[in-house]
Amino acid sequence: MRAVEIRPGVRIRWVEVPGATPARVYLHGLGASSAPYYAEAVAHPLLAGRRSLMLDLLGFGISDRPAGFAYSLEGHADALAVALAKIGLRRCEIIGHSMGGAVAIVLAARHPEMVRSLVLVDPNIDPTTPSLGAPGSRGIAAYGEADFLSHGFDRVLRDVGPHWAATMRMAGREALYRSAVDLVRGTSPTMRKLLLELEIPRVLLHPEDAPPGGGRELAGADVQLVSVPNTGHNIMIDNVEGFARAVAQQRLSV
């Protein structure tokens, strides 16, 4: 475990595997933590040998949980940029799952010097509508913040199942709620529009039976769409081989 202070008393932490450059930085989804989700894939023979940082965004996993942080997508991206600069990294390969994919897109748009290429793993790229009882960010964002902090968190934690709950219970409650609200609201321009306009190699992994909406537009903007069989939303866990192969192929396009 390593850490960097991004402002007085606030640290972002990560688990690092040494190796060759360019470094790969792995970003988790909402309520998750990078090492539990990515460790097996990082150790896969197709991906081993590269410097790999399984990094936890502020408010999640082993990173700090400052209550006063906005936890917007832009806030997460800017904090990540500060962390990468202090670590001494530029032009990284960024691999982002779900919310981490949205943060990766915003990072590339706001801090292009930090990003060499993107691998987006079933990412959030469009705004959605909050709905009480819906899974993930939509259900969390349907609460008011006070209600979520007082009883909504416990209800959500009970309903998400043991795998997700194992990392979600590590999250700061304010971080989880505010990140979900901003993820549902999206950015302006939207994450999709930002993604379409980026001029770096971009790969979007999706489950075989759940292609992204607007796939033709994405492909027309040179976003490589890769279908990974036998997976749900957690592609890197459900099919480690398929995930590792898709990420390793990114090396050919940079």
TrEMBL record:
Gene3D superfamilies: alpha/beta hydrolase. GO terms for molecular function: hydrolase activity. Residues 25-128 form the AB hydrolase-1 domain. It comes from Lentzea pudingi. The keyword Hydrolase applies. It comes from the Bacteria. This is Alpha/beta hydrolase. Keywords: Hydrolase. The keyword Lipid metabolism does not apply.
